[in-house]
Amino acid sequence: MTDRFLSGHAACGGCAVALAVRLVLQEVGDRAVLVVPPSCIAVMMGPLPLSATRLPVLQTAFETAAAAATGLARAYRARGEDVTVVCLAGDGGTYDIGLQALSGAAERNEDILYVCFDNEAYQNTGNQRSSATPWGARTTSTPHGKPTRKKDIIGILAAHRVPYLATASPAHPADLAAKVRRARGLAGFRFLRITCPCVPGWGIADDGSLRLLRAAVESRAVPLFEVEEGRRYRITHRPAGIPVAGYLRAQGRYAHLTPSEIAVIQADVDQTWQALVDAT
Length: 280
Hints:
about 40% helix, 8 strands, 11 helices
């Protein structure tokens, strides 16, 4: 197994995004080019002329990751070169600022692999809410808890009928690696959403990310599944269905929640999980 993400990068101690980036880059192959908008990943990649990866990196504007990747993929195809163009972006650059370019690339079925490392807020600039922030989560811009729900980015992209979508977690590395390999072997637009706790933003210990992610998956708050052609759903891990309260109480961003508010989140998790089961 080849490590294409090197030591010496600038991620926080215990950063789940850094681990997820490492796992993704192990599977994309040596004939890959990375497109990275402003994000924690951009900081990890390193300032020019330094780099924390063995692969070529194009750092682009916040809103243009999918557009820049489209241009690169078409240029390599015109040259007759077999290159995998991979976007590495955060939730702010995916769910919010880059959504227009992302939707355009998906609608055109551009031949790119887009990976969103979702830590559920603008963590690189100090933990402001994004549309990926869940209901009730406290951020610097929602100090009493976010009053609206997390955007369903998988549902939005599934409506584009793209070849492949999947959710993943660095706490489940074999599942994540299998999904990257599968996406790499397909043509057209492919998208992975990888949930990654942020140590300071979520208010957890720097050795707590993977334990927390396992609780997230087993409570069904973060289900792991694939979607083919926008219609065929497949659950890749059947969780135990433990109460979501333990997952929430382990995070500082949810410390203010009352039992009745936790019950609201539990009901939403149950409803979302049942809809996923019904779709498979």
